[in-house]
Automatic annotation (TrEMBL):
Disordered: region residues: 431-475
Domain DUF222: 17-321
Protein name in the entry: DUF222 domain-containing protein
Extent of Basic and acidic residues compositional bias: 434-462
Origin: domain of life: Bacteria
A Pfam short name: DUF222
InterPro entries: DUF222 (IPR003870), HNH_nuc (IPR003615)
Amino acid sequence: MFDAGDPATLIDAMAAASRAESAAIAERLRAVAALYEVRCVDYAEAQFWRTDVFEAVAAEVSAAQNISRGRAGCQVRVAVSLYQRLPQVAAVFARGDIDYRVLQMVINRTANVEDDIIAGLDASLAEQVRKWMRLSKKKLRDRIDVWVADYDPAAVRVPPTVAENCYLEVEAHPEAAGMAMVGGVLDAVDASAFDQRLDLIADSVCANDPRSKQQRRAAACGAMGRLESSLACLCGSTDCPAAKVRESAAQVVVHVLAEQATLEGTSRRPGYLSGFGVLPAESVRKAATTAKLKPVRFPSNEPESGYRPSAGLRDFLQWRDLTCRFPGCDRPVAGCDLDHTTSWPFGPTHASGLKHYCRTDHLIKTFYTGPNGWSDEQRPDGTIVITAPTGHVYTTDALGGILFPGLAVPTGTITTSTPVDGAGRTAMMPMRKTTREQDRRERVKQERRRRLELNAEQERQRQAWLAATYEPPPF
């Protein structure tokens, strides 16, 4: 597989690569933090904007590294915290003395330390942290917390309550096309009701249904989504005792895009389930047996007269784009706005001049303009060419056009004019009531208060224990 070398040389190479990896990540984070500082000056008026400097920098990071907006935002948070609050720990990381795992733990466990104290803690941790590389996650956390408690007892992190972390997520399966994963943390009473409802629906079939109980419970989730109270039995019997009229009261619609040949069985080309991704041909044909079939119609070459596109044009654009068209963003079109590439009425309402941006990217494109802003252009086949504030150019292709080339056929050339610079346009930007930094400080304030309360209670219990176990001297 590869040329064997001297073991000592291989060990040296391994160690050097590990240190180089940390140094490279440190340099990347330093660049992100420096970019954030520059943009805070460039976009000084944006701190109360809904799409603030943090979002603007995350958009640049996402595009430059070709990563999702969520990962880019995480990098911005880590970079700013590291280089603004922990510069000496950052230097240790840049030398390769610690890895990213240790660095993340230090940043997280010191997040509540007061600004006038953090410098001293930073210096102390920089001297010690390289010794902790071998520690497990729990031991590493506890070691850092000891140092935090010495400098700022109120800053020791308080574990979040489970109730604060309730969630339920539904996402595409990472390996099995056409499948999805559901998971989360629920209130116990809600979970009990949900669990019982699944059982009731799963048990609505006869004893000869070939599916296992778990498979029927999984199918019951779809029935619940359609507001159905029972499952269709798969026993195959014409006189099944569980057979009944099953009507759906659902107000939900599931959209699947597929080629006609796939529906007819002459092609195994997969379809696309909106919001989840590729759907195998067999699943497409199964869904089509009870679905309303609607062809995607190619739009007219003539522009439409109004600002808002017709239902037919909107339908085509949704299937052509499938996701947000901004670099690094893959939010489904269901959560996106339609954007005129050249603002209306200077750009017509036409397929060659419309595409989808999620709300955050739409605001970035609309309000972060000028010398330090973004600009974009659109080609007739739906390709978007986006120029970043730095002059870097990124190209995004419509996902629907990639999966189904017929949707990427050029829709005609349009005529645009130069928009008039809208003075005072920034007044239309949705605003925050508090800045992101104010929100952070309020979170820290509340968690510090909880820590002081916990510390006081622990001290009360200690004093009570001492009083209960104290025995006066026998004289």
